[in-house]
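Researcher: Next sequence.
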Amino acid sequence: MAEASAPASSANLGPGFDCLALALELRCRVAAERAEEWSVCHEGPDRPGPGEADAVLVAARTVTDVPLRLVVDNRIPLGRGLGSSAAAYAAGAAAALRTVAGEANADRVFRVVSELEGHPDNAAAAVFGGFVLADAEGRARRLPWNPRLGVVVAVPHARLATAEARQVVAATQPLAVVTRSLARVACLVAGLLAADADLLAAAHGDEIHERPRSRRHPDVASLLDVARSAGALHAAWSGAGPSVLAVVEAAKKAPVVDALTRALGDGGTVWEPSIAVRGLT
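Model: Next structure:
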């Protein structure tokens, strides 16, 4: 039996739409072995519901025609903007390849996950880990993460489908919006590299995906305000939401955790995940 795991991820980080992501240490683990017919058994707490596509099975069948028995232990909440599908695709594909071919090349798994996802940001984080950039050619590039920074994630119980969230993003953008977005991305990356509060403050206010999504889901927008007011250096929709990622000084998480916990009440949970330095294992 071969095994593989891949981490959760928070994509976009505000203005880095479809190109920036951060791997978080929550994992989807998959074990695979040859069988007479395809089957999948979910043992973890987070699993697809009736009628939903099984990402692990889809990825495994994408890379091999050999029937496999798959056992899944997934700890990443589905439909919360935490890269659950990318992690499932990566772990499923890698476990299948290791079973039938003895190894799983990371670049090949990344290409498979990117194609299945339709965008490379979560795929890059799931496969390579850490703070990643999917460049203009769709290649994954690791960026250094400043150890002075930590993250807090507010995870509402309600789910939000990625397809629904992407529907509100306009296919074309005015030149002025693009220019401001480029400036915000530059401030975001420079601010994260240097842990610079002023630069990170200048990265707020994404107009391409966060503003239209926030109009439809003002409860998510309010969580961003709560995190910033409590001292977060940066706060953003986590992927397609409804989770919110807050970037904080590692030694000053408590006020942000407390404020988000009060804001969510019984409607969600607050996590303090570490950065997943390793992606696919």
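Model: The longest strand covers residues 20-34. The domain at 2-142 is CATH 3.30.230.10 (Ribosomal Protein S5; domain 2).
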